[in-house]
Write a structure and sequence with these properties.
elongated, single chain, 12 helices, 2 domains
């Protein structure tokens, strides 16, 4: 049985890498998409075009203008109201304290002004860099694209070429065929996950605070679902075009419900339970927790169990349907 499994795996690799378009999808496209999305998704307020009309022309107004232009928040063109108000409030507070101190000094008295300082502290991402928060989600989305498209496309491609029928007449067990058709893409997905994480760390500065073996364990559980859905679509679809449309139909709701773009807490109450069915949500939470917080396997028990449960159900059901169609 092992020899037959290795033969199927070798056949899948040869058939996959014979197509230059598939090589592009599996190797180059994930990296380019990571770079594109990583640079495009930026929520920091920097270089806001600003025009300042200084009608006071006093030392105080010039000091306020200098304070506004000292950082990277503003250039010159349109007024950004909220940030300006914050600068103005700090400046007004400083002016008030200086005047009270001058009055107290002229009267020969000491003045004590009670003051409460609220200093928010942001854990794990103190500079609030949106790329560090979004890049792990991009890695999860790219992994589902690679494994889902290749699995569904490979199965339907054999249907169109008529080679699947030739395999079925051979003395090959159905379970060996299923494992042989999914395991190569699982290995490719893990390799893609590794170099996407490396690129995210090197290019965008995403930290690696937790154990990477937890990330790859979660990736393997995550691909149980993506490969299972790929088997399901490849079984139901008759052509590669139908399989591609099916992958889009699955990926869009799964990504939207994952909390990758908007937090799950901001979704309507009736929609939040459905987000628990999205494997991307659990994988994104694991990636962010391991990479940014340094979480371990004991901290991520609910997410790992959810990934394993969804993956086993989807993969077993898809394999059973494919086995029934091939019988």
């Amino acid at each position: 049985m092992l020899t037959a499994l290795l033969s199927v795996i070798v056949k899948e690799y040869r058939q996959t890498f014979r197509d230059r378009r598939m090589i592009w999808i599996l190797t180059v496209a994930p990296l380019l998409q990571l770079l594109l999305l990583g640079f495009a998704v930026n929520l920091e307020v920097e270089h806001v075009p600003t025009v300042i009309a200084d009608e006071d022309r006093s030392p105080e107004s010039r000091a306020l203008v200098d304070a506004l232009c000292a950082g990277d928040a503003f250039d010159r063109a349109i007024m950004a109201q909220n940030a300006v108000v914050a600068f103005a409030m700090r400046r007004a507070e400083e002016e008030a304290r200086q005047r009270l101190a001058s009055l107290a000094a002229s009267a020969g008295q000491a003045v004590a002004i009670p003051r409460v300082n609220i200093e928010p502290r942001v854990l794990y991402n103190p500079r609030l860099e949106s790329r560090i928060y979004f890049v792990p989600g991009v890695a999860a989305a790219l992994l589902v694209i690679v494994t889902l498209v290749t699995t569904a496309g490979g199965l339907t491609r054999e249907k169109e070429a008529g080679t699947l029928e030739q395999v079925l007449v051979s003395p090959l067990r159905t379970d060996v065929l299923i494992v042989g058709k999914t395991l190569p893409y699982a290995l490719i997905g893990l390799v893609d996950l590794g170099y996407v994480l490396a690129a995210g760390t090197w290019v965008f500065g995403v930290p690696l605070r937790g154990p990477l073996w937890v990330v790859f364990l979660a990736g393997a559980l995550y691909m149980l679902t993506t490969l299972g859905v790929g088997l399901l679509l490849g079984t139901l679809a008759r052509t590669q075009q139908q399989a591609l449309m099916g992958t889009i139909f699955f990926m869009m709701p799964a990504i939207v419900l994952s909390g990758f773009i908007t937090p799950v807490e901001n979704m309507p109450g009736w929609l939040r339970p459905l987000s628990g069915l999205s494997p991307i949500r659990h994988f994104v939470e694991i990636l962010r927790a391991v990479l940014l917080k340094g979480a371990g396997v004991m901290d991520l028990g609910p997410q790992l169990v959810a990934l394993a449960g969804i993956g086993i159900v989807v993969f077993v059901a898809s394999a059973a349907l494919l086995r029934r169609r091939l019988a």
